[in-house]
């Protein structure tokens, strides 16, 4: 599986996982210029923006560690555009879904309210 295929698989797996938990999926791969939001959801009367990180191994660190402060700023910027464009009037929460997937295992960690503006 290529890195791109792994990323697509991870986002699909995360979307299914969140939907099963009752999250309403509003958008996938929402683009604002060069920025992208992996998943935009509604849950518990909140707008939940979800960054999905998928790796084949956690050898160099858990996938969620790749959501650096710089990446967080990009997600927040794209989220602000989404909120304005869709006239959203909900509290916003930023989650991360961290997935390690290979031929031996699939491990998913959902970090709710992982960061804020």
Overview of this protein structure:
With 117 residues, the chain is α+β, with helices and mostly antiparallel strands. It has a single domain, classed as Trna Endonuclease, Chain: A, domain 1 (3-Layer(aba) Sandwich), CATH 3.40.1350. The chain is built from 2 helices and 5 strands; from the N terminus they run αβββαββ. A 5-stranded mixed sheet has the order 1-2-3-4-5, with helices on both faces. β1 (24-32) and β2 (35-43) form a beta hairpin. The termini are far apart.
Cα end-to-end separation: 35 Å
Helix percent band: 25-40%
DSSP strand tally: 5
Q: Sheet bearing the most strands, described?
A: 5 strands, mixed
- Low-confidence sequence ranges: none
The amount of beta strand, in percent, is 35-45%
Indicate the multimeric state: single chain
General shape: globular
DSSP helical segment count? 2
CATH class, named Alpha Beta
Strand order of the largest sheet: 1-2-3-4-5
Counted up, domains total 1
Judging by the overall fold, what is the CATH architecture? 3-Layer(aba) Sandwich
Instruction: Give the radius of gyration.
Output: 14 Å
**Helices and strands, in N-to-C order?**
HEEEHEE
The CATH topology annotation reads as Trna Endonuclease, Chain: A, domain 1
- Average pLDDT taken over every residue: 92
